[in-house]
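Request: Mind sharing a record?
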Amino acid sequence: MNLKTVRGTHDTLPQEQSWWRFVKTTLFDVADGYGFGEIATPIMEYDQIFTKAIGTASDIVAKEMYYLEGGDNNQRVALRPEGTAGVIRAYYENGLFNEPSPLRLSYYGPMFRHEKPQRGRLRQFHQFGVESIGEGNPSEDALCILMGKQSLDRLTLPSGSYNIEINSVGCYTCRSKYLKRLQLFLKNVDHDALCDDCTKRATTNPMRIFDCKNATCQRHYKNTPTPLDYLCNDCRTHFKTLLEYLEEAKVKFIINSHLVRGLDYYTRTVFEFISQKGATKDQAILAGGRYDDLVALFGNRNAPAIGYGIGIERLIQTLGDSRVKPPAPSATQVFVVQLGESAKRKSFTIIQQMVAAGIKVSSALSKDNLRSQLKVADRDGAQLAVIIGQREIIDKTIILKDMKSGGQETLEAQNCIITILERLKTPS
């Protein structure tokens, strides 16, 4: 038996959970502040949901999808590699198009991609994402980018630790002209000097050549025509207006004319927040764009949309590399000390009452010695200790000990919770 995690997956241990709570809570709080309601979709969908949305020529569909054996009704089922396609499926299936527009949604959960595991890139990873459906105005693009920046600000990630890169890949009309020009350019490139992926992409999905990290390939693409050179008037105006909104909001950005993103459904605006430090340097910690034609692919409704995703593992790595620390977990407030079997049984009642009152409680019920239990209370950082012994059982009382000053008082057990709450509010 192999008692190890599957390659490309990992355990999140208790001492790491403060990071995850901090990040997840912060991201949802910011999204909620911007009016994005939470949605949760299944981790598995019929594979056509992804092939239709992402495109069969994309690396995700061609190389990275996880399929489940057996399928369902002769349709293959796949683990979700990203969140947008499932949200659009839910948009139709649940009649969310009847909601006021724009429909703003946020989500969180595990995603799955079969790719070579490396630091910041796992086969099971977690993603937070937002989708705004039904509004094509560039103000919605600016809102999403601003929300992404504010999310990182709230996580106290220094602004100098990442760059915001932005581009426009145009609509399908102006992009078709650009693709013809790009393919013509690539015909004159020495394909023997390119990597295998770029050689294939040059014919199947030419804009993806810009995603290649091979330095030799990138040298050949230095003078490549860019999507910005071929924007139609509407796309050019959309992009110009977006940049003006960002400048007004004092958001610093870099125009990267070779930024295209890896999914077929993107139109017009694409953007990435690129890490500048640590193990995630040059990797995107937040990325997204506009997908005005995707909703229509699933049904008969034309609804422009924009969204972004954040890889949680990579974001946590970036925060750690930037020396950001999550809030310390709240310490034990009251430690329950019990002496004897009768006192141990009574402890369960006291513990339940304090937890119900919102008090963080700890105990060492397997120990019987007073000193050993108080030692654990010190280790846990408890403010107060409730001590119950045989005399307290008979008298129906408890002893309340201040762990800092050492002072003690005897209280009636029946009304002790009120006093404990008062003592917790009063500094020692």
